[in-house]
Design brief:
This protein is α+β, with helices and mostly antiparallel strands. Helices cover about 45% and strands about 30% of the residues. It folds into 2 domains: about 80 residues; about 45 residues.
């Protein structure tokens, strides 16, 4: 079996960047609606909208957050870069569960010694538990 057929990837759900861009437009509209001549309110709404729009652009430019293949795990690095973590560098793959304000959340943690990579459900388009299991299954037995 070749390496391409054994690679698997997880990406941002396709509707998420559209929702972020719609949120940015909504923030601008609300800023214009409620500014009442106050430039500070408009600037705050504009800055928040710009941050949300940049976040959406990142999702469009680099939608794949995590890839696994026989050589290791490739994670997103920086704004849209990629970094290969060879299997020998991966110390642990775990799921951190937290409960806050009555809501529970899961984060996939990939510990590569000097770096820790964190991914949530909306980074992966799947549950962190499901992805952690797939990563553990893909790890070569040594």
């Amino acid at each position: 079996m070749d390496e391409i057929s054994t690679a698997r990837q997880w990406r941002v759900p396709t509707n998420l960047p559209a929702a972020k861009l719609a949120g940015a437009v909504l923030l601008i509209a609300l800023g214009l609606l409620f500014a009442d001549g106050d430039p500070v309110r408009l600037v705050v709404a504009g800055v928040a909208a710009a941050v949300l729009a940049v976040w959406a652009v990142r999702d469009l430019v680099a939608p794949v957050r995590l890839t696994v293949d026989p050589t290791g795990i490739t994670v997103i690095h920086g704004f849209a870069g990629r970094r290969l973590l060879p299997w020998s560098a991966v110390e642990a793959i775990s799921v951190d569960r937290r409960q806050r304000l009555g809501l529970s959340g899961e984060i996939l943690e990939i510990d590569a010694g000097e770096s820790l990579h964190l991914f949530g459900r909306y980074d992966l388009g799947a549950t962190p538990e499901e992805v952690a299991g797939a990563l553990r299954d893909a790890r070569p037995v040594s």
